[in-house]
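Discussion board: Methods & Data

I've been asked by a reviewer to show the raw model output for two of the constructs in my manuscript, not just the figures. I'm not sure how much to include, so I'm pasting the format here to get opinions. Each protein appears as its amino acid sequence followed by a line of discrete structure tokens. Is this the kind of thing reviewers expect to see in a supplement, or should I convert it first? Here is construct A:
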Amino acid sequence: MSTVQGAGVVVTGAGGGIGAALARRFAAEGARVVVNDLDPGRTKAVADEIGATAVVGDASAIVEGAREALGGTVDVWCANAGLASPGDAFADEAVWAAAWDVNVMAHVRAARALLPDWLERGSGRFVSTVSAAGLLTMVGAAPYSVSKHGAYAFAEWLSLTYRHRGVKVHAICPQGVRTDMLTAAGSAGELVLTPTAIEPEDVADSLFEAIEADRFLVLPHPEVADYYRARATDPERWIGNMNHIQRKWEGEGR
């Protein structure tokens, strides 16, 4: 794909799962890739596999290091690092704070560091791995659902604010993907997500289709569009259906 060939690309949370799949796909398309994760071993393994550069650390704090590794310019930022964060309204304050920090504020901080250069040269691409939970919700995961709604809102705001100035934004909103995060979702994930779970590579394919079409919303599970429409047009029915799933989950002993 000529759009990303030679581009400087950073993928956070790329030690496995969706992030690793995105890093592999960008590298295969000819991009110069920085692989970021907190785990040094996993980061280096993916980077070595695809001929990329490993930059270990918190996704909120590696923009300058990644920019330096790419020779001074970041063309594409994939804000992929995330926390599953299960729990209800009584989840500990630290769980809520961590979900908000990783799932939302890491995106804000990256954009804050990247936008001046992108706006000056009139180009840049921000890819936010959100989740269908950011459009809908997820039973048993209040901190995750709320923070993913925030991530989607921020991506949407970036797009509507800067698209006329050359900044492209994509929000990836899959349902279940066969990753460690799906495992971390526990019994709720098994009930809601596992039956239709896809591979991380399918998510990467969907992103590249959206890049080619210059489309903001990336739906690796196309049926999410129907759910989103139903939620918007008949919220009472939508909430009732989700409550039915909640009761089924409770009845199965969580």
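Construct B, same format:
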Amino acid sequence: MSWNLTGKIFASIVMAVAPWIVSMAADTAPTKSDPAWLTDARASINSNNYDQALKQLQSANEVNSADWNNLMGYSLRKKQPPDLAASEKYYQAALKIDPDHRSAMEYYGELLLMKKDLPGAEAMLARLDKACLFGCEEYSDLKASIAKYQGKK
């Protein structure tokens, strides 16, 4: 079999499985069909306005949404002063709803580092490694946070 034919076969296989791989992704990148509360909360978070994001999220009260719980946890962790105990509960709820929610795993790992729980953060990194079939930004970010934490010890 020639290399050219082998390359075409490989490309065909990749094209066939690519939609399946993308559909497996547990993170939820912004889409046009996102509800207003999600779009608004993300905009507030991107502006570092965590108190406003919390108000928007609390108003939406989408407790059965992994994204809602993840963003509640994130906003509580990032606001000043942070509320780490409440943040942890929301990350845990997000991961109970969607065990492969990559953002929740990353952010929960970062919270665990804030609590000086390196083994817990490493466990989140291991879960991300399994959830990110071919690597992902969340895995890379948490791995970098762990390395930075270890350098400060």
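Answer (T.O., handling editor elsewhere):
This is acceptable in a supplement if you add a one-line summary per construct. For B, something like: The helical segments are 3-24, 36-46, 50-60, 66-78, 84-97, 102-114, 118-131, 137-152.
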